[in-house]
Design goal:
332 residues; alpha/beta; five-stranded mixed β-sheet; 13 strands
Length: 332
């Protein structure tokens, strides 16, 4: 059984480690040094929902990077709920993993130690170690991409709960009877405050032939199905009005959910990462306003900081590699 994720020991191994971030749309792999710097990075599209195909892509990436670097252990940050031992993916809403023995499978394929953790836990660890969460005792990390990943860092450790599934904030039900989520429920937060939600709203405008969607359609080559969260985010950053409005709406939902988390957890800091965080203040300013408007006890309590992640979309990769390095060091 893997020991709890805890603060790194005083002596840090200088060996390079490999981090892999498995998301709903991409698999990213990177060689990471002891300071959290990425020496080399590769990525591939996530090959559908077949677990064996995902394992094959991971093996290919590790083998290619291993030809150019002397690698130690491998850390996997995977989108899904892990058991407390970190050996099995119990359930992944965006991948076809159901009680998947991912650690055992990959150690057999790679012939080296493998640590498996939730991708948001890995991102939170990286931000706490090297990024926006340094010197913070309590912080919540939210990763906005295909869905919403989440993690809570308490006193230098990632809190995983009694069964290993803490931090699945994206699946709190924020709109009963709302949009169907891939987890099976309706109205989950990630259906309103994620990259997928942003793309869905843009496509809906286009399919209803709204004149507001002209810029979105032009950017997607005239095809509504080509309007993704990435397309809308890029247009918003270029100043396109409808795209900015859609990003702001997602920010409102984000702030509402953060206010709920503040009522339950009371952290000093919320760090926002993932692909959608590229929108910056176009997303975060509406989120901050909605957070303050919905905060329980507002006016009589201290307010948490809502900050953009410093490590960007590489946080999960960096954190997985650093956790694997730390795990390997403890075993040796």
């Amino acid at each position: 059984m893997l020991p709890p994720i805890s603060a790194p020991s005083a002596t840090v191994s200088p060996a390079l480690s490999l981090g892999i971030d498995i998301g709903g749309t991409k698999v990213a792999a990177g060689v990471v040094d002891e300071h959290g710097a990425i020496v080399e990075e590769l990525r591939r599209d996530t090959p559908g929902r077949d677990p064996r195909a995902v394992e094959a892509v991971i093996t290919e990436l590790v083998q290619e990077l291993g030809t150019r670097h002397q690698l130690g252990s491998v850390g996997i940050g995977a989108a899904g709920w892990m058991d407390l031992a970190g050996s099995r993916v119990v359930f992944s809403p965006h991948l076809a993993w159901r009680d998947e023995p991912l650690q055992e499978n990959l150690q057999g394929l790679l012939g080296r130690p493998v640590l498996v953790t939730n991708d948001a836990d890995a991102a939170a660890w990286a931000e706490w170690r090297f990024g926006a969460g340094r010197d913070r005792d309590r912080m919540v990390m939210l990763t906005l991409g295909t869905g919403i990943g989440g993690a809570l860092v308490l006193d230098g450790r990632v809190e995983r709960g009694s069964f290993g599934m803490a931090g699945e904030f994206g699946h709190q039900i924020i709109m009963p009877g709302g949009h169907r989520c891939e987890c099976g429920n309706r109205g989950c937060w990630e259906q309103y405050a994620s990259g997928n939600a942003l793309g869905r709203e843009g496509r809906e405008l286009a399919r209803k032939h709204s004149p507001m969607a002209a810029g979105l359609l032009a950017a997607a080559g005239g095809r509504p199905k080509g309007i993704t969260g990435q397309v809308v985010t890029a247009l918003a950053l270029q100043g396109e009005h409808t795209a900015q409005e859609l990003v702001a709406e997602v920010g409102e939902w984000l702030g509402l959910g953060i206010a709920n988390l503040a009522a339950a957890l009371d952290p000093a800091l919320f760090i926002i990462g993932g692909g959608l965080s590229a929108a910056g203040d176009l997303l975060l300013e509406p989120a901050r306003r909605a957070y303050l408007r919905n905060l329980t006890g507002r006016g009589y309590r201290q307010e948490a900081i809502i900050a953009e992640a410093q490590l960007g979309p590489m946080a999960g990769l960096i954190g997985a590699a650093d956790l694997a390095r730390e795990q390997s060091q403890k075993k040796s």
